[in-house]
Design a protein that fits this description.
The structure is a single chain. Helices cover 6% and strands 46% of the residues. It has one helix spanning 2-23; strands spanning 40-45, 54-58, 64-68, 72-78, 84-92, 100-108, 113-120, 134-137, 142-148, 152-158, 163-169, 173-178, 184-189, 194-198, 209-210, 227-229, 232-236, 241-246, 253-259, 265-267, 273-276, 281-288, 301-306, 312-317, 321-326, 333-338, 343-349, 355-362, 369-374. Strands 20, 21, 22, 23 and 24 form a five-stranded antiparallel β-sheet that branches. A four-stranded antiparallel β-sheet has the order 3-2-1-29, with no helix packed on it. Strands 4-5-6-7 form a four-stranded antiparallel β-sheet, with no helix packed on it. β17 and β18 form a beta hairpin. The termini are far apart.
Amino acid sequence: MKLTTALTMTLMALAGTAHAADEIQPETLTIEEKIAPGPNVLVMDFGMVGSSPVYVFGNEDLKLKGNIGTGSFGQMILSKDGKTLYTVSAYLERYVYGPIHAVVHEWDLQTMTAKREFEINDKFAHVESQTGTLTLGDGENFLLVQNATPATSVTVVDLAKGADIAEIPTPGCWTAIPAIEGRRFSTICGDGKFASFTYEADGTFSKPVKSEQIFDADKDPLFANPLRVGGKLVYLSFGGNFHVVDDSGEAAKLENTVSIEGGEWAPSGSEVMTYHAASNTIFVMMHKGPFDGSHKNPAEEIWAVDASTFKVKGRSAANGETGIMVTKGDAPDLYGVTHMGTLVKYAVALGDEVALTKAAEREGAAIFPALMQADY
């Protein structure tokens, strides 16, 4: 008797569910032709669990506008006009073995669609997204792609042709930092020297021109990603020493070395510093009580440094960031990302004293945010 009653009630419930389903009107899905207007912040999610998507957030409230899908181990760079995003990433046929396809994508940022794609040398480095591993050279006519197999080299990509034209061996060196003008780049090497190369549109390239020793990798190594300040390259060491390097000649030259005078503080993080040209200010992530290996520690404070005198003109509380990026213009915003995936926006008060105030925060912006860009 109880079994019969239960069966009857179940059949009635299913009938009711089916009747309710008949009354549900199907939803019509649409796709926006363009993302919402306004300035954007781009965050590349290195992920390490599959693809490396690029998330695009609005600058006011950090609202997600959309995302761009790339392959694995992605690198990105935004054109100077902020309209075109270039990425290089790996597409793995069997993921743990088999062929690898290294693909360059050229994306229209407003529509988030690929304008074109093409394959290049598959040796590109499968490393955390960094500013120096994918760069634009010679007036944005070429892409320079860092390779590692683990032997290091640089692939030169002709964007007009949509193809790679050269692989330049750079043994013991890392990153390809383009000169301000011409088809030339410099790279930082483990022996404390810099190597400079020129390349031509036909794929030929010069032998390396080595500098004198610029730093001691054993005593005070440099973070590999420099800033371009007033035409010079500014590198920062693990110990907090700025190295101003002139790369305008055939060989790079050390112009000046200045300590940040941090006392018991030292720089740390991945994208450890960023430069605001209008106020001539370098922002640096800092942590207290440094030790061997602490150069990757999350930031405890963010310091503002005058790029002419290298004097500290402001110290602000940080939120555990591992990367920072400042926007352009007279009233900039500064963004930070943590290794836990939080995106933080700071309002910047400029002047004799520079101060940061947290203006917005978005948790879960990415799984492993590694690199940021902004189009404003």
